[in-house]
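Hi V.,

Quick status before I head out on leave. The structure for the redesign project is tokenized and pasted below; the design run finished overnight.
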């Protein structure tokens, strides 16, 4: 079965009613004219044929009659000559016996049936011999013209008389005579034969010439001798000399035979005539066939044909009426069909999804115009190139699609599939496809219809959602681990603070030469390492306090250069590069250094057999497109720290997990699995992004994006006031809930000369402040404490003493100050565990700062 999607030729339906009628009438007229012309031609031919037949018939008949009449006259002449000889012989002897001669004549007469009488007239004209001359009355023919001619002319020969009424029989007859001479050669009489015209009439009547046909025998002067049939008006017409001009002309020209057409002047009937002169005698036989007769059959044919034409005409009129009605019905049907077609096409052409019908061979029977939006190719392209669909299928999905089609066709079931195509302009697009086999009423397979939806956006959204979900999961995990680690680190910090503080005090008081000094050093060093670890834990758990300032990343990298050089073995080609311009970001310098250190360390570890390692700092601008393409970020200006190595790289699973705390692929003792987690924590806290790209065996590139802070002037090299004396004599309110730490700090401060009032929590501190008789110069407080936290405590005191100086200390806290991620510049802060020296330096620094 073949289908055509192109609209059917509608020219038939565009013809208007009147035009169609005009066409059909013209058609009927033409056909009928043709038929009539055909009939006329055939009638004309058949008429000519009839005329021809009539001519031939007249010619044949005239020939037959000419011979018949000629022969009998010739025979008669022979008899006349024989009789004449006989008579002349006897006249010479003078011995003519009456009876003898009669018998002779009678014998001769019997030999010629046409003859009515054979007689001899003597020189006076009296009939002397002859069969019927033996009656009482004497009969004379001396007055007859032929007799006179013989008597006067010796060599008149054979004379055929004009028709005369026989004096013997009383019938119209022809007398055919010869002269008889006596011995001396003078006129002795006439021998003659009588042929009754009746005989010819009988002969002629036996010949069929039709109702209006004529047979005429004429004499020397064209006088009628015999005419068949005898007309009522003219009796037997004997003697009449009326002939048509044509006939007369022909005779006058001396023609002995001929055929002509003429209208008889008397009866006004048209006839075909053929005439013949009867041998050498002055007689003409003329056969006339009337047109009426010989065309009778033709006339019948004409009326038959006429009837047929009329029948055909009415038939064709009826047929055209039927055709017209049929056309009208058809037109209405086509119009209805076109409306239907328009209706469905209107819907089909506006389907948003790409609908198609593939034939059993996979060629396109129909495709909705939406194919152009979805594939970038228009419908014509699909019709003209049947394998276009397979061409635009994404190479990896081709096998999938053909398998799906195979199943849909062989199982005859509905199916669905998600595959990719290559859009002519937009690249890879995701298509959700459902299809269904098409069969006709008899169960013949006609192909499959398919509906295709572009789900690229949905796919992307899904991916984005998955990514975000992954990120969220990651964030939650980090949060949980962070909380745990942070909690441990906080408590641990207090313990470490005590260990570090007391060991330092021991060191300060111990005799320089004491053999125990080495052990205390060890305690101190271990405690410091433990403090580093808790710092790491806090960094990745984002609970670490940041000391952010505007710093130039390029300077940071330069400053780090030497240390990095020491870190990296000879077999690694290490390069550092950065932008010419300053790259100011608001960040904690130490943290950023740690990030770079961690990245470089990891890169080094990934290249045990050497390779290339490069650290680069450049400036990038994230716009919407960048954000869309990479799936992360906020538009803006960023500093980009790239650390690229040519090491062993990571597989996808490893990449997914690198930021997990304690995830490491390194052997026990070599890796802690905290490096990347810390980087993650630090960068998040700096509102930046980490991006990793790695291929197994090829290498890894980490990219760190930090928001550029253009407006802020660098304070990176801020001069730290030199603290001449670390101690002082001011009064300090020390607030700390951990007794050990409180004791340690109190001791450190008192050792440095300060007066210390200590409080166990926020509320206690407020109470002591209120009840204190001496002037308190400064508050040194922990941030998170039961009852009242450091921040609130300070706010309350500040209400009474706006110039009150303060130093916050914390290892881990959810305090608002810290949750902001950045410390208010007015507030002073020190992270736990704090070294005694650091604590004293910070206290002195704050006390010495002039109150605004
Ligand atoms: P550690 O270095 O202690 O293993 P990290 O958090 O620093 O922990 O790194 C986690 C893991 O990430 C590493 O064990 C390693 O598998 C992978 N990794 C990190 N950086 C790279 C790198 N540049 N090349 C290859 N793998 C890396
Ligand atoms: Mg590491």
């Amino acid at each position: 079965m073949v289908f055509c999607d192109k609209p059917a030729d509608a020219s038939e339906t565009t013809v208007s009613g009147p035009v169609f009628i005009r066409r059909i009438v013209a058609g009927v007229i033409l056909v009928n004219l043709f038929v009539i012309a055909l009939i006329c031609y055939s009638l004309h031919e058949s008429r000519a044929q009839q005329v021809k037949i009539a001519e031939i018939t007249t010619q044949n008949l005239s020939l037959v009659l000419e011979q018949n009449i000629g022969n009998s006259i010739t025979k008669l002449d022979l008899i006349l000559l024989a009789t004449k000889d006989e008579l002349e012989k006897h006249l010479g002897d003078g011995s003519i016996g009456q009876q003898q001669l009669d018998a002779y004549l009678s014998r001769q007469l019997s030999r010629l049936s046409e003859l009515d009488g054979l007689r001899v007239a003597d020189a006076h004209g009296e009939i002397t011999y002859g069969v019927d001359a033996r009656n009482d009355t004497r009969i004379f023919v001396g007055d007859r013209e032929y007799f006179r001619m013989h008597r006067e002319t010796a060599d008149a020969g054979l004379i055929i008389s004009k028709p005369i009424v026989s004096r013997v029989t009383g019938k119209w007859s022809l007398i055919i005579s010869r002269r008889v001479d006596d011995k001396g050669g003078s006129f002795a009489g006439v021998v003659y034969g009588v042929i009754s015209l009746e005989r010819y009439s009988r002969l002629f009547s036996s010949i069929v010439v039709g109702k209006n046909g004529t047979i005429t025998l004429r004499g020397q002067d064209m006088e009628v001798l015999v005419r068949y049939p005898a007309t009522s008006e003219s009796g037997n017409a004997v003697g009449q000399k009326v002939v048509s001009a044509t006939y007369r002309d022909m005779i006058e020209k001396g023609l002995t035979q001929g055929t002509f057409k003429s209208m008889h002047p008397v009866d006004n009937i048209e006839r075909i005539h053929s005439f013949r002169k009867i041998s050498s005698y002055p007689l003409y036989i003329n056969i006339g066939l009337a047109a009426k007769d010989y065309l009778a059959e033709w006339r019948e044919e004409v009326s038959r044909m006429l009837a047929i034409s009329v029948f055909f005409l009415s038939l064709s009129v009826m047929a055209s009426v039927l055709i017209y009605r049929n056309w009208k019905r058809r037109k209405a049907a086509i119009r209805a069909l076109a409306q239907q077609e328009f209706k469905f096409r209107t819907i089909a052409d506006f389907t948003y999804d790409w609908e198609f019908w593939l034939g059993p061979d996979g060629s396109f029977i129909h495709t909705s115009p939406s194919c152009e939006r979805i594939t970038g190719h228009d419908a014509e392209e699909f019709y003209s190139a049947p394998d276009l669909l397979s061409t635009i299928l994404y190479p990896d999905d081709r096998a999938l699609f053909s398998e799906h089609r195979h199943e849909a066709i062989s199982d005859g079931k509905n199916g669905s599939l998600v595959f990719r195509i290559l859009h002519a302009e937009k690249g890879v697009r995701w298509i959700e496809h459902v299809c269904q086999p098409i069969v006709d009423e008899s169960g013949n397979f006609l192909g499959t219809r398919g509906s295709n939806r572009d789900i690229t956006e949905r796919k992307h959204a899904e991916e984005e959602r998955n990514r975000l979900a992954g990120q969220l999961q990651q964030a939650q995990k980090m949060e949980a681990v962070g909380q745990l680690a942070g909690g441990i680190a906080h408590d641990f910090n207090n313990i470490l603070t005590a260990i570090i503080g007391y060991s330092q005090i021991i060191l300060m008081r111990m005799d320089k030469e004491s053999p125990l000094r080495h052990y205390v050093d060890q305690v101190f060093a271990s405690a410091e390492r433990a403090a580093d670890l808790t710092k790491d834990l806090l960094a990745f758990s984002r609970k670490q306090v940041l000391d952010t300032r505007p710093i130039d990343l390029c300077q940071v990298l330069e400053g780090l250069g030497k240390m990095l050089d020491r870190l990296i073995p000879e077999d690694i080609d290490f390069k550092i590069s950065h932008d010419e311009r300053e790259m100011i970001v608001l960040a904690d310098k130490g943290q950023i250094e740690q990030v770079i250190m961690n990245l470089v360390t990891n890169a080094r570890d990934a290249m045990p057999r050497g390779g290339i390692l490069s650290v680069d700092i450049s400036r990038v601008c994230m716009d919407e497109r960048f954000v869309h393409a990479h799936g992360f970020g906020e538009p803006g200006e960023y500093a980009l720290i790239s650390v690229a190595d040519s090491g062993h790289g990571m597989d996808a699973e490893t990449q997914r997990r690198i930021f997990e705390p304690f995830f490491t692929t390194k052997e026990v003792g070599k890796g802690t699995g905290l490096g990347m987690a810390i980087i993650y924590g630090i960068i998040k806290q700096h509102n930046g992004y980490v991006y990793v790209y790695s291929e197994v065996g090829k290498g890894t590139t980490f990219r760190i994006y930090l928001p550029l802070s253009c407006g802020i002037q660098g304070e990176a090299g801020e001069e730290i006031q030199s603290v001449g004396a670390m101690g002082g004599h001011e009064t300090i309110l020390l607030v700390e809930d951990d007794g050990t730490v409180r004791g340690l700090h109190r001791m450190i401060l008192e050792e440095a000369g300060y007066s210390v009032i200590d409080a166990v929590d926020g509320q206690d501190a407020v109470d002591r402040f209120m009840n204190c008789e001496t002037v308190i110069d400064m508050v040194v407080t922990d941030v998170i404490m039961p009852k009242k936290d450091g921040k609130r405590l300070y706010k309350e005191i500040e209400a009474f003493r706006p110039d009150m100086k303060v130093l916050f200390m914390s290892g881990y806290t959810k305090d608002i100050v810290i949750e902001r991620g950045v410390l208010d510049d007015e507030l002073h802060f020190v992270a736990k565990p704090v070294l005694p020296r650091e604590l004293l330096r910070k206290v002195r620094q704050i006390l010495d700062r002039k109150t605004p």
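Above is the designed sequence. Residues 806 and 827 are 7 Å apart (CA to CA).

G. will cover questions while I'm gone.

Best,
W.
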